[in-house]
Amino acid sequence: MGDILASGTSALLAFQRALATVSHNVANASTPGYSRQRVDLAARPGAGTAQTYVGSGVQVQDLQRLADNLVFARQIDSSGELGRLQQLSSLSDRVDALMSDGATSLSQPWSEFASAIDGVASDPTSRTARSQLLGAAARLVDRFHALDGRLGQLDEDVDQKLAAGVTDVNRLSGEIANLNRDIIAAGANAAPDLQDARDQRIDQLAALVGGSTVAQDDGSVNVFTAGGQALVLGIRAQQLSATPDPYHPERLQLALASPAGAVPLGAGSVAGQLGGLMEFRGNALDPARAGLGRLATAVATQYNATQQAGVDYNGNAGTRMFSLDPPRVAAHASNTGSATLAASVSGIGTLQGADLVLRFDGTAWSATRSDGSSVAMGGSGTAASPFVANGVSIVVSGSAAAGDRFDVSPTTGAAGSLKLALSDPMTIAAAAPLQVAAANTNTGSARAASTQVTNAAAFASFSGATIDFLDSNTYTINGAGPYAYSAGTPIGSGGWSLSLTGTPAAGDSFTLSRTPPRSADNANVRAMAALDQAGVLDGGATSVTAGISQLTAQVGGDARHAQLSLQAQQTIHDQIGAERESVSGVNLDEEAANMLRYQQAYQAAAQVMTTANTVFQSLLAAVRG
């Protein structure tokens, strides 16, 4: 009699638990991160001998949380990569839109500037044409400013997103640590819903910073960044922070708290959205801004040199057309010496946009890129012999201490500092500085090619010159000399220079006089008109026009690559999600079948109890009778 009651009671309790679990599954069918649960039943040990053995019913052996740890590991890895690419693609698209849209790109104002120069070349005495050139130059400067400002705003947006992301990371890390504590207290198998909540937060954390997990024997999980730094160790969460960059305190970098102090985290140590932000800044935003500044530097350098080589409408030596701030130099926050560095562009043909880091080891200076790769550097760092690297000259003043570091940004921000230096259209130096007359008696093939002002102060006192060739290799200037002549080498003295083509002969003579005011000469502005296609960057291989196209193409290519990578990763992430659902997701049809099966079993167990009660009542009645 007791065996029947015990078996029936155990069955009622077991199937009640099974029905409750099925109901729990159905109720959470749409709950994000929920893993299906299953009750495993087993026979309770019976009693008796082999001939008289009697079972004692059923018991709940285990409550299974149906989850695949390998699939989950792939899921959080995919979440980290997806988060990284989402940020990288979204922000890269914004840079691409700036550089390629006709309303914001350099192409239109650059084309207008070149056309305006052609207008002055066609009518060098026209005030209207000259005013149009200054207007086009001003619009070009404004576009450089606007682009640099928008890129600078993107940099600030990155900082804001980093700060907000750090807050979310610390919140999630704290919640994971608290859930670890609760799971340890409850026992791992007794807390499937807590494990779901923890996994969901781990996945959210991975989307922010990437990372991996390591399960512990007590049921807790340790969480690490992509670079292996601990974010959660058992019931203790490490604090992530956004700290000022040691070179540029207006920018933020990530750091992780540790007993030894804050440990900076580079882009390689962090994946997820925060890693994507850092990668965007280092691989897309900074190069785009430096490339823009490199173009601005090339424009200022080229056009200033040509403008200063000619004379303006009033006959005065040309002054620079544009002004530009020197390269930025920033000292590391930990520097202890008194040294300061001053940088200037020394060679536009070798100028590169990437930052340089100069380090002093106590004996010598060395230069590297921001990624640590070495950069060749000449000179000794003095005013007489400055350091020269990547087209930048650097002069060191004061005393550096061992370990001192400086960051040199050759072109970053240059576009924002570009200014138009001319305000009077008549100061445009359209004319060549000198008029050259060849003697009628010349017998050689030498012809005047071009003249330039090489020193405005010295040229101010120029009153004319006569060059007489003694032979094809020797000449005098106003009777002074003789001087050696080499074909292709300009002849110059007192702030001016003359270039010849062909070969002079003995007795040939050239007379030079100042170009008078209000001259219709357009030789210098014609030289200026050719600059848009003249090779100036990359050792003379790239013109500014080509440089604009290359920068636009580079930014667009990076954005497209990020977009395609995001699409591919989204497909992978969806596949992993489907795989997880096949293991952990709730199938309502299956749960309905289980509900019916357990309901029937519960009813049968109840009938066993009813039968046991009937037998018991019959037994009592028989005893009473």
In words, what does this structure look like?
- By secondary structure, this protein is α+β, with helices and mostly antiparallel strands.
- It has 11 helices and 27 strands.
- The protein has 4 domains: 2-66 and 585-624, no CATH class; 71-283 and 546-577, no CATH class; 326-412, no CATH class; 433-514, no CATH class.
- The chain is 45% helix and 20% strand.
- The strands form 8 sheets. A 5-stranded antiparallel sheet has the order 11-18-13-14-15, with no helix packed on it.
- α2 (69-100) packs antiparallel against α10 (544-584), α3 runs antiparallel to α4 (127-186) and α4 (127-186) runs antiparallel to α6.
- The longest helix has 60 residues, at 127-186.
- The two termini are 20 Å apart.
Write the layout of secondary structure elements.
Blueprint: H1 2-27, E1 37-43, E2 58-65, H2 69-100, H3 107-122, H4 127-186, H5 192-209, E3 212-215, E4 221-224, E5 230-233, E6 236-237, E7 240-244, E8 252-256, E9 263-265, H6 272-309, E10 322-323, E11 328-331, E12 340-345, E13 356-360, E14 365-369, E15 374-375, E16 387-389, E17 392-397, E18 405-409, H7 414-417, E19 419-420, E20 434-438, E21 447-453, H8 456-459, E22 465-471, E23 474-477, E24 480-484, E25 491-493, E26 496-501, E27 509-514, H9 523-529, H10 544-584, H11 588-624
Antiparallel strand pairs: 1-2, 3-4, 4-5, 5-6, 7-8, 8-9, 10-19, 11-18, 12-17, 13-14, 13-18, 14-15, 16-17, 20-27, 21-26, 22-23, 22-27, 23-24, 25-26
Helix content: 40-55%
- The backbone outline, from C-alpha atoms, is elongated
Side by side, the strands of the main sheet go 11-18-13-14-15
Number of strands: 27
Count the domains. Answer: 4
Question: End-to-end distance, in Å?
Answer: 20 Å
Strand content: 15-25%
Average residue-wise pLDDT? 91
- Biggest sheet details: 5 strands, antiparallel
Point out poorly predicted stretches: none
Per DSSP, the total helix count is 11
Radius of gyration: 40 Å
Which structural category do the helix and sheet elements fall into? Answer: alpha+beta
